[in-house]
Amino acid sequence: MLKIVPDPPPSNPSPHHLEDTLIQATEYVRCALIVAHQSVLASHPHSLGATLALTAVHEMETVRALLDSALTQVQVPVQVQTHH
User: Fold this and answer.
1) Is residue 55 in a domain?
2) Assigned domain for 1 exists
3) Exposed (0-12), middle (13-18) or buried (19+): which is 79, by Cβ within 10 Å?
4) How does pLDDT run across 27-53, given as a tens digit for each residue?
5) Residue 10, domain member (yes or no)
6) Which domain of life is it from (predicted)?
7) Which of 32, 38, 43, 53 has its CA 20 to 30 A from that of 8?
8) DSSP per residue, 55-73
């Protein structure tokens, strides 16, 4: 019998799982940016479609920067505290 409802994600994901998710999200945003850039190139420069695509590019670039920042934070190794 097939499950109709998938299992929920783990309540406390490991840092490596979070890192994988951030990497995957970054790749999706990168692909969406490529499509949006191509959409702008294929349309008239001052058309409403080009303006909307450029707006989407700007938003996706912001999301990509946030994902890169989050990925950097996840990848920072935990510093060992030294006791004096």
Assistant:
1) yes
2) no
3) exposed
4) 999 999 999 989 888 888 889 988 999
5) no
6) Bacteria
7) 32
8) HHHHHHHHHHHHHHHHHHH
